[in-house]
Amino acid sequence: MTGFVALLRRELWEHRSILIVPATLAGLILSTVLGSAIYALVRGYGLEMVFDNHWHSNPDTVEMGRHVPAAFIAMAAFFGIVLAINVTLYLVDCLYADRRDRSILFWKSLPISDTATVLSKLTTALLVAPAAALVAAFATTFILAIAATVVLWSHGVENTSGLWQVQPLLSVIVGMPALTLMIAAWYVPVAAWCVLASAWAPRAPLLWAALPPVALIIVEQIAFGTHRVPEFLGDRMGGVFPRLFDTRHYVGFGIRDDEFVGTLPALQDISSYLTSLDLWGGFVAAAVFVAGAIALRRYRDET
Amino acid sequence: MSAVIRAEGLSKSYGGVRALDDVSFTVEPGRIVGLIGPNGAGKTTALKAILGLTPYKGTLSVMGRDPYSDRHRLMQDVSFIADVATLPRWLRVSKALDMMTRIHPRFDVEKARAFLARTEVRAGARVGELSKGMIVQLHLALVMAIDARLLVLDEPTLGLDILYRKAFYEALLNDYFDEQRTILVTTHQVEEIEHLLTDLMFIQHGRLVLNSSMDAVQDSFVEVLIAPERVAEAERLQPVYRRELFGRKLFLFEGVARERLATLGELHRPSVADLFVAKMKGAPA
Hints:
The complex is a heterodimer of chains A (303) and B (285). Chain A has 303 residues and is mainly alpha-helical.
């Protein structure tokens, strides 16, 4: 187990972007927003410059507080988009990088199984990197909420406790990690496919990951004139969101029927998602891809 | 004690080329074995088979394990430097030590630190910032701090200058080797290591053409600087190799009594390099 943790640390040392990208993103957002807020304060602009008219004329912090979770979620979604790109690049590189610089010979001189090596990469992509992005998103929103509190104070709004209601905050802090896990579960086969490409590719692993699906789409189009493959792949790329969220009412982060709701976006029946054939079929496909990646890592003569 | 490596009928082909052709040998504990052969003779293939990095035909047992199916467990008892510069360039020295401590149950970080203290390798440096010689020193520090029974070195000093090469083998011999350990090494710079070898294996076209202890080699191989009037007589004793030096004939004999040879001229101890050339040219291609 300590060995596996050491392997995870190794991934963060080698692929520093897993931590640096969310940290940089947080830094950019905070410096932009706080910078303009401080600028506004220094120049003596009123609340209308910081909040829109509706809020500035009637700073109801209790109602405002119900929006804090939505802000958390919007921020997490933004970090999530960046995370998806970052993790994809990491995954296609993770097993290829060792082969490119021949350091695979060093790693193979250590008493680590190839299974543990491959699983450490998937764990990094599906658990460690999302956790880092989530923490960064939370920290960013949290600091912004503190800043908002300070701004309100500076404008004589004394009762800001509405911004910090326990129940909605708690629902986000507990709910978001669970939601992240459920979303990550959907992408397990995609991640496993990338790892397989990384283990296989003689060079340009990103291309090797992308070409087979593209080729399938083209072949299907030419041979049958149908679009089953792109539909299937499209569903795998984005299908987790309609499965998790009630999109009939849900039109934005924290908004339902044009009204703000101060909790997580309306969730579908989660148990039907968690027991769905789509999710578990994905796990089966992932197991096949991972087994292939482990076998390649283990049995292919790399030198 | 049982053999550290036992190979029987080891074979391996790449395409149509036989890299290893029915090779059998054993390596006993406490030996330093030099595996010498020309490029493409099968040295690296043999080492890769021993390290579980490549599949093979025949039977091979390393520390009682099948290296191919049991590589990651075998690596607790076996360490290797497969090549210069296989350490990942992004790795920092301090983190390499930290990682080895966590991953390798037999890694003694103090030993590695003590060795590195004698070098110019700084703890904060990345591998990519180190010179080739320093990278090898770091790798050696990591490997020597592992309490392994078998150390395999494949051209560990290739491309290093003479100072680093000397220091490498001195450290290996003085700070690492003892009767419990076994070292298997391949190198082209055979003259630099011949004094530390206890056993010699020559490999050519995937076959072992010599497999003997150094003592036995020195008993059975004698080089004679033939007196001019004795050349015809010497020829009748069927030297395994002939060469000329300053117009005089130097014959290499195998398995001919020293007393008999002493009558032909001046006796010399052949260097491993001379033996190697003799064996490579003499052996059927």
